[in-house]
Amino acid sequence: MNKALWDTIRGYFYFLKMIAGSFVYIKPKDKKNILFIAWYLPPSISSGVYRPLSLIKYAGEKKIKLSCISGPLEGEVGISGKYLEDKLPHNIPIKKIHQLNLRPSWKFFPRIQENTLIDALAIYFQAIDIYDKAPPKIIIATGPPFSDFIAATFLAKRYSCKLVLDYRDEWSERPFDFVGKNIYDRLFEEICLKHSDAVIFTTKSQIAHQLSVFSFLNKNKCHYIPNGWDGQFSAWDKECEIKESQNKIIISFVGYLGAHSKPGDFLESIGKIIDKNKNLNLVIRFIGEIGPDCRLIIERFKYKEVVEIIGHVPKPRALRYMQESTYLLLLAEESLSRYRPGKLYDYISSLKPTIVYGYEGEVRDVVCSLNAGFFVRKGDWGSLEEILLDRNNSIFSGEVKEKIRNWVNNHERSVLAESFFNVVNNLT
């Protein structure tokens, strides 16, 4: 028999068995036992590691009775992975599952963002081998990948326990072109949301959007806990401060310059400003990797002499470049209006004014509410010119600096982990 056909049959067998298992109703014995499902945990160095790691660290410090299931180890463990792994508390057990050797025909088997459903089956069946003897009282799942959500939902049905879904990113409403989505994504997301007891989002915009899309979703079980950061406070140390040139205006973009941060319109506005102000001493720095399309845009810019491409550098050096800057640049795309990039925390904590160029959204709201910079609508080169020509705009008052420091301190991952578990504890 063809392997794909045989794997399709086996896949449906496991899937139907998982559905049937959700009607078993095994009652939790220990009311304090919490299961945390997170596909990415150290030594993985995926960007999806840091929020789950902060929650596990907090649970270990507070002696919360938590156990974890994560995805398999992929590839060799490097220095960075070992560094993160050493941060895991020894009193929190972590079970790494192995993936099922199934490659079904996607013509006949539901495909949810690559291998999501197959991975959900792997999590589910290896979890019941462990937890049928001592079922959890609460299950927390973080995604993406959303195999965590699917497995957690059917496990919560099996154990009649509370279910917490932590959206680090959106699922069927995700705006990224490179993420495949179909009818099964929406179907399974609805199943998970309907069974959930608490749903956590990283921005208020995402909560509002989900409530508008999923009419059945109860707003009272939706909670806002933003993505945090781990803190790089050297920028606030006077010994590390670097005085930028009094005559030169340096605008720095830090991070990957790609499909969701194309600089064409911004550079066009800069070109118009230079046309009008020929003696403007201006440098546009791009610090980080640059995608081929964006590199072509930069090469076609008529004032290439003001552009400085630094390339990818270690974070301490990137922070130093930020301190040398007059302004930091964030390109705000309309499709990402519900998102906050991780580098926003580094930008704001640098105490350098941020220019948000593009569209309104979460990034604009944060920067403007803190008086930490300026918002310039796409194409409004006149407003951008006014900002650049007034050098007083690059200086923060003591009051604004204090406001920024308080905001950044309140967004440390350790602080947000406490808020997260407050939501969890309120379910018991």
Report on the structure:
The protein has 428 residues and is an alpha/beta fold. It has 2 domains: 239 residues, 3-Layer(aba) Sandwich (Rossmann fold), CATH 3.40.50.2000; 178 residues, Rossmann fold (3-Layer(aba) Sandwich). It is built from 15 helices and 13 strands. The strands form 2 sheets. It has a 7-stranded parallel beta sheet with strand order 3-2-1-4-5-6-7, with helices on both faces. Helix 6 links the parallel strand 5 and strand 6. Helix 1 packs across helix 4, helix 4 packs parallel to helix 5 and helix 8 crosses helix 13.
Short descriptors:
428 residues; alpha/beta; Rossmann fold; 2 domains; seven-stranded parallel beta sheet; 15 helices; 14% strand
Strand content is 5-15%
Give the helix tally: 15
Quaternary structure classification: single chain
**What would you call the structural class?**
alpha/beta
**C-alpha Rg, in Å?**
24 Å
- Beta strand count: 13
The poorly predicted ranges are 233-242
Approximate helicity band: 25-40%
How does the overall form come out from the CA principal axes?
elongated
The fourth-level CATH homologous superfamily of the largest domain is Glycogen Phosphorylase B
CATH fold label of the largest domain: Rossmann fold
Largest sheet: 7 strands, parallel
Instruction: Output the strand order for the largest sheet.
Output: 3-2-1-4-5-6-7
Distance between the termini: 50 Å
CATH class of the largest domain: Alpha Beta
Tell me the count of domains: 2
Report the CATH architecture of the largest domain: 3-Layer(aba) Sandwich
Give, in order, the helices and strands.
Answer: HEHEHEHEHEHEHEEHEHEHEHEHEHHH
